[in-house]
Amino acid sequence: MKTLKPLIRASVCAGISLSLAGCLTSTPHWDAHFGETIQQITAAQILNPQASSNTDPVAGLDGGAAAASMFHYSKTFAQPPIVGTPYGVGLGTSNTSGTP
Q1: Do residues 61 and 70 touch, judged by C-beta distance below 8 A?
Q2: Collapsing DSSP states into helix, strand and coil, what is residue 63?
Q3: How far is residue 56's CA from residue 52's CA, in Å, rounded to a whole number?
Q4: Which PROSITE patterns does UniProt cross-reference here (predicted)?
């Protein structure tokens, strides 16, 4: 009986303290700075923030040369490259045409 009253008091105090702890904010400093890190990371990824105001055209290939380059580049994927056998690495080629 003597140990029952202190246990009841302790449990009531614990219940009150836990219910009051839910009403408190423990991170006012963190809440005030919420989202600043994402803004800093996003700003660090932008190379030139004034790029949209640049009206100077980009120097490089003209349209015809760029189109021809892309056409020849895309043709390289039409047929897979010929791969030799792993046993013939470094052996050279044979001459079957009959001329030395």
Answers
A1: no
A2: helix
A3: 10
A4: PROKAR_LIPOPROTEIN
Q: What is this structure's pTM?
A: 0.29
Q: Which residues 6+ apart lie within 8 Å of 66 measured at CB?
A: 60
**pLDDT range class, residue 90, cuts 50, 70, 90:** low
- How many C-beta atoms lie closer than 10 Å to residue 89's C-beta? 7
What whole-number distance in Å separates Cα of residue 34 and Cα of residue 40? 12
Q: How many CA atoms lie within 13 A of 87 on its CB side?
A: 0
Give the Cα separation of 43 and 21 in Å (integer): 37
End-to-end CA distance of the chain: 114
